[in-house]
Design a protein that fits this description.
45% helix; 3 helices; 5 strands; 82 residues; 3-stranded antiparallel sheet; alpha+beta
Length: 82
């Protein structure tokens, strides 16, 4: 049986942009659950506030991909298409 190649931060970011483009929003908790289940634990870490967060590589690729078209809503803990 062939092994599935390791997912990349770029692929995670592409999924996030597609999801937000399609639904308009993406909650951080939902994103983290999906990423852990479908891409792997290596893209998630617990930050200094004790909250689960996406890796810096994912965030960097994500920012580059959306080019300012997606905004982070700090109060709602979600990303939204602008």
């Amino acid at each position: 049986m062939e092994e599935t190649p390791e997912a990349t931060a770029q692929e995670v970011a592409e999924w996030m942009v597609k999801e937000i483009r399609f639904t308009g929003t993406l909650y951080q908790t939902a994103a983290i659950e999906y990423v852990k289940a479908n891409f792997g634990e290596q893209f998630v870490f617990v930050n200094e506030n004790g909250n689960a967060s996406l890796s810096k590589d994912v965030k960097k690729a994500f920012r580059k991909l959306h080019g300012g078209r997606i905004a982070w809503d700090r109060d709602g803990f979600l990303w939204a298409w602008t």
